[in-house]
Amino acid sequence: MRADDLILFAQIAEMGSFSKVAEANNITNSVVSKRIAKLEKELGTQLLYRTTRKLTLTEAGQALKQGAMNVKASTQEAIDTISGYSEQISGHIKMSVPTISGDLLLADAVAEFCTLHPGLSVDMSLDNRFVNLVEEGFDLVIRTGYLEDSSLIARHFLDSHWVVCTSPDYIRRKGRPKAPEDLSFHNCLLYSYHTSGAREWEFTSSQGSYTITVDGAFSSDNAGALRKAALAGRGIAYVPKCLVFEDLCNGTLVDLFPERVGKVLGVYAVYPYSRQPSRKIKLLIEHIRQRYLSMSDYF
After folding, report:
1. Which element (helix H / strand E) includes 123?
2. Which residues form a coiled coil (predicted)?
């Protein structure tokens, strides 16, 4: 059994297509098919179900997938180690980033990094879901939140503070809540992606942290939608400060409790514990960290 056939199988498991793998390796579909057939013969079991429309892994294929992914990752690490001796970095990075930071700064920062290193390509997915790095083949993930998985290594960039805000028009029509407890009398815009619950808003006092249960007519799993609703005077939103920083600066939104909001989440670069980050990953992490720090006022 050849390692490159396992790597080819890992690519198929990732991409879900013979034609995409063939194109990525500059070979024909028939070569891909023959090599997988040879691998199946050597293992004595079918690894893939193939139809004209869909390609799925068999139970045996699922069992082999992680080992094949490890072979692929180890091979890339060996290549990265050698390429690290030269000034130029090259290759491909697959990463996932949160939508707000992606729009605010990461899209430009990562595109700039690619411009600085012409031999490098990056596939950046904007997704608030905490992806499975190893199973889904991600090299790097930027996340905002609490990290509990001990199989991952995280580098902390900064903390993201949240705000409770609304428009001046809403305040004129409905009045300004004087304390968090007054929110029960207002239409609150609910962020259904909250891990602690869309209606449970966290605050601080001299006695410590506590939550207020709120209610409202509009909820969304997209914070940008809540920002637009708040700007239109539809209610009060509890969102990351970075999302509405410029709105707060220009007065189109008002921070209602600047010293009382308790939600603070760390922003991290995350990669698998079992994998020593390559030079290109280390450089990208540092590039991203500097961009976050240059915009720390937003957070």
Report:
1. strand 120-126
2. none
Strand 140-145 to 91-97 pairing: parallel
pTM of the model as a whole: 0.68
Return the SS3 of 56: strand
Sign of the Cα pseudo-torsion (36, 37, 39, 45, in order)? positive
Domains of the chain from N-terminus onward: 3-83 (1.10.10.10), 91-150+274-298 (3.40.190.10), 160-264 (3.40.190.10)
**DSSP-assigned beta bridge partners for residue 163:** 239
The pLDDT tens digits along the chain (299 residues) read: 678 888 888 888 888 888 888 888 888 888 888 899 998 888 899 998 887 677 889 999 888 888 888 888 777 766 665 555 555 678 899 999 999 999 999 999 999 999 999 989 999 999 877 777 777 888 899 998 866 665 677 889 999 999 999 999 999 999 999 999 999 999 999 998 765 678 999 999 888 899 999 999 999 989 999 999 999 999 999 999 999 999 999 999 999 999 899 999 999 998 876 556 678 888 999 999 999 999 999 99
Beta strands, E only, the chain: 48-50, 55-57, 91-97, 120-126, 140-145, 152-166, 188-191, 200-205, 208-213, 219-220, 236-240, 254-255, 264-272
* Cβ–Cβ < 8 Å for 99, 191: no
In this structure, how many other beta carbons lie within 10 angstroms of the beta carbon of residue 169? Answer: 13
48: how many CB neighbours lie within 10 A of its CB?
19
3-state secondary structure of 211: strand
Amino acid identity for residue 296 in this structure: S
Q: Any idea which residue has 């009382």 for tokens? A: 260
Q: Tokens standing for 126?
A: 């904007």
Residue 253 is classified by DSSP as S
How many residues are given for the chain?
A: 299
Q: How far apart, in whole angstroms, are the C-alpha atoms of residue 283 and residue 299?
A: 23
